[in-house]
Every structure is written in C-alpha cells, then in structure tokens.
Amino acid sequence: MNALRDILSQGAQMLLVLGLAPLLTGFVRKVKARLLRRRGPPLLQPYRDLVRLMRKDVVLADNASWLFRVIPYLMFAGTWVAASLVPTFGNGLLFSWTADLIAIIALLGSARFFQALAGMDVGTAFGGIGSSREVMIASLAEPAMLITVFSVAMIAGSTQLATVAEFMGSDAVGLRVSLGMAFVALTIVALAENARIPVDNPATHLELTMVHEAMVLEYSGRHLALIDLSSQLKLLLYVSLIACVFLPWGMAPADASVGRFLFGALLYLGKLTALGLLLALFETAIAKMRVFRIPEFLGAALMLALLATLLRFVSGSL
Amino acid sequence: MSSLQFDIAHLLAGSLVLASFMMLYQVRLYALLNVYALHAGVLALSVAWQAYVQQAPHLYLTALIALVFKAIIIPVALHRIIKRLGIHREIENVIGIGLTMMAGIGLVALSMVVMLRVTPGADALAREDLAFALSVVLLGLLVMVTRRNAVSQVVGFMSLENGLVLAATGAKGMPLVVEISVAFSVLIAFIVIGIFLFRIRERFDSVDVQALDRFRGERR
C-alpha cells in the first residue's frame, strides 16, 4: 500500500510538472501582454503550439549529424527528470533522496551542453553565435548558482531539497540576511538561465541580441516542440525551486493523506501564480541589457551569493 | 538578548555591507550619491536598533545625526557641487567592476577572519558589528582607491566614516562626546574637501585626480 502511494505521488508529480509547464509560460505571456495593454494570446496557446509542432514534418539540414536528431530527446529527458525531482506539492516523495541540488544543476548543465552542441552542429553562423553566448552566460551563472546552493546548504545543513524545504518551513530559521541575498542571487541566475528579459528575449529574432533562439533556429517539427517544452519545463523548475527553498509552506509530508496532498498542490498552484505575476511585472518594468553588461549582472549575483556565504559564516561562528 | 534582536542587528549590519558593495558597483556619479544616501540611512537604522538593544538613549542622537547630516544634507550638497562643477557624470574606474567586486569580497572575508580571531571573548553582537564595520571601512577605502574622480573619492571617504560609526556604536559605553566630535570632524573634513574640489577644478579644468600625477611630473 505504501509503495503504491509512493509511486502514485511521484508519478503525479512528474505529470504535474509536465502538464503545468506550458501553462506557466502562457500565463506569464498573458500577464505581460495585459500589462502592456495588449490582449495577448489565450492561456492555452503554448499547448496548441506544441500540438501543432508535433504534427508537422521535421525538416533537417543536409549536413545535420545524428547528434542533431538525438539532442532534443536528451535535453527533454534531462530537464524533465530535473524538474520532477524538485519537490512541488509534497515533501519526501519516492525520489526525494536523489533530489540533490547539485545533481539537479548537473542535469541542467548537461542539457545545456547538448543544446550548445546542437547549435553548432549544422554550421550556420547564428547557431555558433547563439552557442557561444549561451556558454558565456552559463559559465557566469553556474558559479553563482553553486555558491547560492552552498549558502543555502550551510543554513539548512544539507543539499537535499526535501531536507532543505523541511528546515525552511520549520521555526528554526529566524531572520537571516544570507537567505535574502541567496534569494536575490537565485532569482538573477534563474532570469539568466531561462533567457528572460534583462539577459535575453526569446520573443524576438533580432540577431544582435538573440541567444536561445539563435541556437534552436535550425529545429523544426517535433524536435522544436521538445526543445520548447524543455525550456518551459526549465522555467517551471526554477520557479518551483524558488518556491521550494524560500516559500516551502504547506507542502505535504511523505505519509500524508490524499486531502493533504491536494491542499499542497493547490498551494503550489498559488505560489506559481504569484511568482509568475512577479516575473511578468519585473519583465515589463525593465529593459533588455546589452550583451556586454550581462557579466556585470551575473557578477552581482555571484557577489551576493559569496556575501551570503560569508555572512552565514559570521553568524554561524558566533 | 533574544535571538530576534541579534538577527535584526545582523540584518542591518549586513545590509550596510551590501550597500557598500552597491557603491562599488555604480558607474554613474548621481547613482553613487543615491547609494551613499541609502548607506547612511541604513547606518541610521542600525544605530537606532543598537540604541534600542543596548538601552542607550544617547545613541538615538547619533542615529539622528547620521540621518540628517549623512543621508540628507551631504548627498544634497554633493549633488549641487556636481551640478556647479559641471563634470562628466560617468565615473572612470581604475580596474573593471568585476575585479573590484572580487577584491571587495576578498576584503570582507579578510576582515571577518581577522575580527573573529581577535575577539573570541567579546559579546556576540559587538563581535559581529566589529567584523562588519571593519569590512565597511575597507570597502570605503577600496572605493577611494578604484575611482579616479575626486567626487567619488569623497563619497568613498564618507562611507568609510559610516563604518567607523558602526564600530563605535557596537562598542558599549562609548561616550557621546566622542561620537559627536567624530561626526563634526567628518563634517569639517567634508567642507575642506569641498573647497579643495573647487581648487582642483579651477587649476586643472577637471576633477580627475590623474591630472595631479601629471602636474607632479609623474608618469603613467
């Protein structure tokens, strides 16, 4: 009975992230459009796009290698696994012992590595420039992310997300400067990693600025659908990571009843809505940065994360 | 002392260090002044919290001085000086922002290590305040070192002094006379520096301190 419930709850989590990811993207797009006084596409438009792309034929470049065809599946698999490891509605799910922050970063990192390879595979100029920019951003964002993880792990005493969420939800946390700084650093990293506005704008095809779009320009059909879905999953992953580490209230414990799980899921939806609204507000309030400003922006994240670790060290050794 | 009181003191002192870093990050002169005003405001809050925690009413006066003079009068005066000097509003950094930030992190780490080693017996709040104050002082020095513009060096000097005030309020039993005299000596220094700014500007048509190097016959 217990094993069945574990499998069911973990399966529900995997399907939930897969089902919600396009909705979150659609929601952010809709709110952004409304804030700009446009009507915006309907909420379910990302699902329709995905279905339409799935139905279309794949057009491959003549010199595309086997890697080019395999990579969308690899990316999708890596991102989906990572996204289903982050606790969303319930703590202590079946796979929560693998839900290590460093493992999640590694999964995302390998997905990005494959994406950069695919960008260069066909040999067009755009793919190359997109890959080189993506790798530049990644090389700056990754250290900031890792150090943020270290400072969170120093506070919670573990890099396992279930333990972290449990600790953050308890009364033992108190008021911590380090947590605030880690939060801001994680937000900056999330913006950069998901190609959101101050760093990249996936809604345009302007060759001066595009990063993510330039890499996937050669993809079509079901491959493009998988890549789109994995970038939507990535956005959901970061949003639920922030929700899980910094707002973990209302998560169901491992041996909870069905009602408790449903309550947790409802609360999770509320958190997603709130964070999506904030993201849309932030994106409409700020302008796209020049590519050469990005190192400074991410450097600020690295600095905040380092400072968080240092401050934690001070208050911990007193 | 309850842990919440300590946490709030920690939060305020930590925000002061963060404001110092924001100062290092700025590339425009007006933005630098605004961050300086924020820095002084955070200092005033921190001092007021210390006054409440230590139940030392004279510290409220120090907080008031910090708020009125440092967060309002000096930034406004510097704004007007910049306007009257009509200088270029972008600050030339000696080294890039990223490197400056790294140096700043190194300084903060250094001050924490030093302070935590030398003050094992002291009260936790005082220790933490001293560690943060030393890093604010060092970051102020870094601002002065990495900027070529004389106005931003003045701002660095002022933020350094904020660190001194933080250290002074963290130490219990500091007489009010000392604090007030420190505050006023800084004001006098500010006036003197202001006069010097105009002299430098009159002589060299710029407030870039590199002009002084050339004037002394040094070569870069």
From TrEMBL, chain A:
Localization per record: Membrane
Database matches in Pfam families: NADHdh
Membrane topology (UniProt): Multi-pass membrane protein
Domain of life of the organism encoding this protein: Bacteria
Principal location: membrane
Keywords: Membrane, Transmembrane, Transmembrane helix
One of the record's GO cellular component terms: plasma membrane
TM region positions: 12-29, 66-86, 92-114, 135-161, 173-192, 235-252, 258-282, 294-314
InterPro entries: ComplexI_Subunit1, NADH_UbQ_OxRdtase_su1/FPO
Keyword Zinc-finger: no
Protein name: Formate hydrogenlyase
Lineage: Bacteria, Pseudomonadati, Pseudomonadota, Alphaproteobacteria, Hyphomicrobiales
From TrEMBL, chain B:
Membrane-spanning parts: 6-25, 32-52, 58-82, 94-118, 130-147, 154-171, 177-198
Predominant location category: membrane
Protein keywords: Cell membrane, Membrane, Transmembrane, Transmembrane helix
Record keyword Transmembrane helix present: yes
Keyword ATP-binding assigned: no
UniProt topology in membrane: Multi-pass membrane protein
Tree of life domain: Bacteria
A single cellular component GO annotation: plasma membrane
Subcellular location as annotated: Cell membrane
InterPro entries documented for this protein: HyfE-like
PANTHER family: HYDROGENASE-4 COMPONENT E
Protein name as it appears in the record: Hydrogenase-4 component E
Biological source species: Bradyrhizobium guangzhouense
